[in-house]
Amino acid sequence: MSRFEDYARKYSCIHMRRERGILEMRFHTNEGPLRWGLGPHSELPDAFADVARDRDNRVVIMTGTGDEWSGVRATPGQSAIGPGLTANAFDRVHWEGRALLMNLLSIEVPVIAAINGPAWRHGEIPLLSDIVLASDTAQFQDSAHFANGLVPGDGMHIVMPLLLGINRGRYFLLTGQTLSAHEARELGLVAEVLPRDNVLARAWEHAEVLAAKPTLLLRYTRLMLTEYLKKHMQDLLGYGLAMEGLALMEQPEQPEQGG
C-alpha cells in the first residue's frame, strides 16, 4: 500500500493533486510541456506503481502542461539513444519500458486522459486510458521511432495496431503519419474533441460521475477492461523492446563532433 502524502511530491516531472478521491497527474518539464527523456522514462513507472498501490484513489486523470502533451517532436537523426549501445546499457531501457506500461495498466481504478495538445512522444500512454479526451489542437505521431532509426518496440507496436486496426496501425508506424484530433476521433483513438481550455474541466466532469460509483464496481470494471491489454503487453512488450535494442547495436559508432 502507498499513501498520497508519501508520493505526491516525489517526482520531478509530475504535479499531483487529489480531491474527493480523484487524482490528477499533470506531466511537465520545469512547469512547461513534458520533454521526453531518461528522466520521465525512469520516473513514470514508479509513479504509476505508487498510484496503483494507493487504495484511496478512485479515479485518475492524466494531462499535460501548456500547449503540448509531450515532445519535442523528433526529426530524423535526433534519436535519444546513440550508436554503440551495449546490452547492459539497454537493460535499463528494457526494464523501465516494460514497467512503464504494465504499471499504468495495473492502476485498478478508471483512468481518464485529458490530452491538452500534440503527443509527439509516447502517445500510447494517454491512449491506453479508459476515457480519452483531446484538445482540438492535439495531434498524434510516433516521431521518435521508425523515422529516426528506432524499432517502434516499446508499446507503440502493440497499441496502435490494436486501436487503428492492423493495416492502419502499421501504416502509421512506418510512415510517420500525423493524425489530427478530429482524425483521431474518427478512427476511434479518442472519444471527444474539445477546445483546449475545456479538456481538463471535461475530464473532471467525467471523473466526478465515476467517483460516485461503488468502490468495487470501479475497481473490478477497470480490472476487466484492462485484462485484454495486459495480455497483449505480456506477450509482446518485452519482445518489442528487445528488438529495438538489438537493431540499435547494428549501428556503427560515429566519431565525436566538437561544439
The H-and-E topology, N to C, reads as HEEEHEEHEHEEHHEHEHH
Radius of gyration: 18 Å
Number of structural units classed as domains = 1
Terminal CA distance reads 48 Å
CATH topology: 2-enoyl-CoA Hydratase, Chain A, domain 1
What does this structure look like?
This protein has nine helices and ten strands. With 259 residues, it is of the alpha/beta class. The protein has one domain: 2-enoyl-CoA Hydratase, Chain A, domain 1 (Alpha-Beta Complex), CATH 3.90.226. It has a six-stranded mixed beta sheet. A two-stranded parallel sheet has the order 3-5. Helix 3 packs antiparallel against helix 9. The chain is globular, with a radius of gyration of 18 Å. It starts with a helix and ends in an 11-residue tail after the last helix.
Explain briefly what this protein structure is.
This protein is α/β, with parallel strands linked by helices and 259 residues long.
Write the layout of secondary structure elements.
Elements: H1 4-7, E1 14-19, E2 22-27, E3 34-35, H2 38-53, E4 59-63, E5 70-71, H3 87-105, E6 111-115, H4 124-127, E7 131-135, E8 139-140, H5 156-164, H6 166-175, E9 179-180, H7 181-186, E10 192-194, H8 196-211, H9 215-248
Parallel strand pairs: 2-4, 3-5, 4-6, 6-7, 7-10
Antiparallel strand pairs: 1-2, 8-9
Helix pairs in contact: 2-3, 3-9, 5-6
Task: Name its key features.
2-enoyl-CoA Hydratase, Chain A, domain 1, 6-stranded mixed sheet, about 260 residues, two-stranded parallel sheet, alpha/beta, globular
